[in-house]
Design a protein that fits this description.
Blueprint: E1 3-7, H1 13-24, E2 28-32, E3 46-54, E4 57-58, H2 60-68, H3 70-74, E5 78-83, H4 88-98, H5 101-106, E6 109-112, E7 116-117, H6 124-134, E8 140-141, H7 145-155
Parallel strand pairs: 1-2, 1-3, 3-5, 5-6
Antiparallel strand pairs: 3-4, 7-8
Length: about 160
């Protein structure tokens, strides 16, 4: 089975998640939508789509990919993920709001995998926003490895899945 992992990443957390999923899913390829925006999901048996949430929105490359490929995405299994610092209901709300409603309804798995901020790597404007909105002024690593494992398991279900 060929699986596409289509993602965008701003500071590397979503790219790390995509790579980890790629490593655990046989026949998977991870493609950064910012570098390769014209990938065709119709060439794959299943698709994983994800990216970071900044200011309540997912990366524009992810939104564009979803909009351009609606028919192909609806014709195959899709799994979606976000990286964000929220957990629980807040993270679930962000996930449901940042992807198109038709994709959220179609997705087999919808997983928030936590987030990470390397404060010193942030651009000046991003650092100001993170400080003001989230009150964060130091590195944070809240990646939920069990959530990534759950995403891998959803993409490669066992014999009963």
């Amino acid at each position: 089975m060929k699986t596409l992992i289509a993602y965008a990443s701003k500071y590397g957390a979503a790219a790390d998640v995509a790579e980890r999923v790629r490593a655990c899913v046989g026949g998977a390829v991870a493609i950064d939508l910012k570098r390769t925006p014209d990938v065709n999901p119709a060439e794959y048996d299943a698709v994983v789509i994800g990216g970071p949430i900044y200011a309540g929105r997912i990366a524009g490359a992810v939104t564009t990919f979803c909009d351009r490929n609606r028919d192909a995405l609806l014709a195959r299994p899709v799994h979606i993920f976000i990286t964000c610092l929220y957990t629980g209901e807040k993270a679930e709300a962000q996930l449901n709001e940042c992807f198109p409603p038709w994709l959220v309804a179609h997705a087999r798995a919808k997983i928030a995998v936590g987030g990470r901020i390397a404060f010193d790597r942030l651009k000046f404007f991003d650092r100001l926003i993170i400080k003001k909105v989230a009150g964060i002024s130091a590195d944070v690593d809240q990646i939920d490895h069990s959530a990534i494992d759950a995403l891998c398991g959803a993409v490669t279900p066992g014999p009963t899945g």
